[in-house]
Write a structure and sequence with these properties.
Number of helices: 5
Number of strands: 0
Order of helices and strands: HHHHH
Largest sheet: none
Distance between the termini: 47 Å
Strand content: under 5%
Shape: globular
């Protein structure tokens, strides 16, 4: 039990605080949404991630330099504001259109 908590805790501390907060909000919102709305939300999040720094920093740290030492846009969860998280769910120029 303690090993699992420690292992998961170590895994989570290595992740982007921004991505963790966005994922938490995505799960919270998605719990009451239908599939179509969830897909639109996911699309918006991916587009905002591609416009940010952390996605590319994770690739750099793991795949390019392989130093396993990403420098995230925020060092701690507490540094990420609700407004920043909300921005990942904001409409984008060309939103996903699903067939009916």
């Amino acid at each position: 039990h303690t090993y699992i908590h420690t292992h998961i805790g170590l895994q989570l501390t290595a992740q982007s605080p921004m991505s963790m907060k966005v994922t938490h909000e995505q799960l919270r919102r998605g719990a009451s949404m239908g599939l179509g709305d969830c897909l639109k939300m996911e699309y918006r999040i991916t587009q905002h991630c591609m416009a940010g720094k952390d996605f590319y920093e994770g690739i750099r740290a793991v795949l390019v330099d392989k130093d396993q030492k990403p420098v995230w846009s925020h060092a701690r969860l507490e540094d990420v504001t609700a407004g920043e998280v909300a921005g990942y769910f904001a409409p984008i120029g060309t939103d996903l259109v699903l067939p009916h």
